[in-house]
Amino acid sequence: MIISSMVITLTLIISTVVMLISFVLSKKTITDREKNTPFECGFDPKGSARLPFSLRFFLIAVIFLIFDVEITLLLPLAAILKMVNMLSWFFTGFFFILILLLGLYHEWNQGALDWAD
Known about the structure:
- Helices cover 62% and strands 0% of the residues.
- The protein has a single domain, classed as Methane Monooxygenase Hydroxylase, Chain G, domain 1, CATH 1.20.58.
- The radius of gyration is 26 Å and the shape is flat.
- It is mainly α.
- The protein is built from four helices and no strands.
- One of its GO terms (cellular component) is mitochondrial membrane.
- This is NADH-ubiquinone oxidoreductase chain 3.
- It is an enzyme of class 7 (translocase).
- It is a multi-pass membrane protein.
């Protein structure tokens, strides 16, 4: 009982000392205007919220999210290689990648990846 309270006290003291040292040694200044803004994406947070936004950035972001999620679905194929039949593993991976490539071709054909107007 006494040892656990000593460990908790020692942990609190060490963490407090580390936080104080970090606070003293940090190079953060109050006058850094860009770091004090709510976000650092290039927009002025005090300006109008109804500024026009390029739809191409939104489309690229959505395409990135779709392919990012599909890559996370593709990664377990490598993990289950030794657990399943090689032929079923190959066809599953082939059809999954085929669907990805068809989606990419469709996006390319629709002009979502074309930046020139």
